Every structure is written in structure tokens, then in C-alpha cells.
Amino acid sequence: MTYRISPLWWPLLAISSPGIVPWLYVKNQKFKNNQIKAEAKNNKRIKQATLLDLPELDFLELTVLVEWSANKGFLGDAGVSYLFKTNKGTLLLDVGFGPTRPAFYHNADKLKFHMDTADALVISHLHCDHMGGMAAQRNRQVSIPKQLMPLSPIPCFLPDTAQAPGFDVQIIKKPEVLPSGIATTGPLARGLFFLGFTEEQALIARIKGKGLVVFTGCGHPTIEVILKMVGQLSNEPVHAIGGGLHFPISDGRGNRMGIRFQTIIGTGKPPWQRITDSDLDKTITTINKTAPKQVFLSGHDICDHALDRMTRKLNADTIILSAGETYTF
Fold this sequence. Notes:
The protein is of the alpha/beta class. It has one domain: 4-Layer Sandwich (Metallo-beta-lactamase, Chain A). 29% of the residues lie in helices and 23% in strands. It is built from 8 helices and 19 strands. Strands 1, 9, 10, 13, 14, 15, 16 and 17 form an 8-stranded mixed sheet that branches. A 7-stranded mixed sheet has the order 8-7-6-5-4-2-19. Strand 11 and strand 12 form a beta hairpin. Helix 1 (10-48) runs parallel beside helix 5 (223-233). The longest helix has 39 residues, at 10-48.
């Protein structure tokens, strides 16, 4: 049997239980309230959403700066950073763990990327693996390596209140078209047990002769909710879906000291519940009903078992994203 917490920790957990149990009870009450709040906000936002005037792009090119898998010479990490190029400009989605781990700077330098070459930065949500590290999350302040900072401020689009020194911060309130002709779904919410009430935005691009490309950071609101919003914003078919979907079922990334952190903290559920194949199959069914031609899976917030299951059961051509790789839509 595979334990999420090594038996070596069990005596300490037992000793600490008089404090842990009441804390978990209070946490669970907040979690339930956040679930209700998130569902209400999402339903209202989706109901109020109207068609966006999405520009038809001649092409969309994605270069992966940070991902769990990595090409030779690049560093992998349990974070995300995606560089999108179109005939209308360039946009960076997320910055991984920023300056706190080597992958973002190493890979950006190898690809000769600098923030001055981008028209805007978009942060999908305010979690450490997307906005620049644990301190960035704790301080609600986007952080990137100093060597990559733009010489003059460029827009930084955030789904919730936070800071981004050196950038022109703009808080996204609703769906809108961003620089480079790519749109945001606007913030969509999810109540997570350990990480609390989380707002996340996904990106949408309309490709000439193909349809929509939808990309997530982690997909915390669930792909079901994200695709409902996409359906309100455009009548075009979905050509491709990509990014994180958060299914650490059998294992997680970044295990430490006998603790499989992602299988406890990264499920969004209380620690006494597990994320299961049944949960995953609901997402697979949703994606298959949407019928994209391609699916680009992130490995940063998912286990190999889930990646394998999705690769086998999805009807679309399914690719595992890799740092250093460029994909053209």
C-alpha cells in the first residue's frame, strides 16, 4: 500500500491530534462555505457573460518555458510558464516559481526570452507555482528574476488583488480581449480545502480556419466550468485544450520527507478524501464531448497514472507539454 504520509510521521500526528482535529473542523466549515460562494459566483458570471469580439488570429505558437517534463538541456519543475506568440503580439502566461528555483531563468535564458519581448504578462492564479514562489504567494506579489524584468512597465493581468512591482497591474474582473489578440475568461472561482478561495483565469484564442484554443494554468475551477464560460464567449468550436487539470491521484510532484504533498494539498478536497479515477473520468467525458482535435496536458499538477489514463481515453490527439518545446496551432 502507498501511504500519502509515511508511517514514520504517524506518532507525531497522533500526539498533535488534539490540536489538528479542531483546526480541521474549522477549516472544513470554511471550505464548505467557499464551495457555495464559488459556485454562486461562477453561475452568475457565466450567466452574465456575452459573446466576445475575438479577433481571428493567423497563427498561435506556444513555447513552454516551465513544465514538469523538459527537453534536453532544459530544466523541469512542478510549475508553469507558457509563452504565446500570435500575428498580433506576444503574451506570457505565468512565471513558475520565478526566482526561487532555477528552471524559469535557466530556460528563459536558453530560449533568449526577456520580458521586454512580451506585450503583457498574465498570471492565471495566485499560487506559488505560477506567480513566483512561496513568498510571492504569501505576500500576494508576483516575482520574477531581476535579470528578466522589463526596462519599462508592461501590463500584468491578475485574476485577483495582488501586486507586481515593475509591471502595470490590471485586475481582471470579467472576460476581455488582451494584448496579442488572446482573451481571458475572466476570473472563475473554486473553494479549495487547504488553499482557500481561489480565483483563476484561463486564456482563449481564435485561430483562423480551426476554432478556439483554450489554455489553463491549473484548471482549479474545473475544466467543466471553464468550458461553460468559453461557450458563452464564442460560438466557435474548440480546436484545442491545454494546460493543468490537477489530478494527483496516485502520486504527486515534489514529494518531501515521506509526504506526498500534492495528493493531500493539491486535490482541493479535505485530507480524509482522495481524488479518484471517477473524478478524472468525468473530466475526460467533458473533454470528449467538447471534441477538440488536440489536448496538451501539463504534468506539473498531475500524476503519471492520470496522464496515462487521459492519453488512452481521450479521443483527441494528446500531447504532454515539455519545457523547451514549441507547439504551433
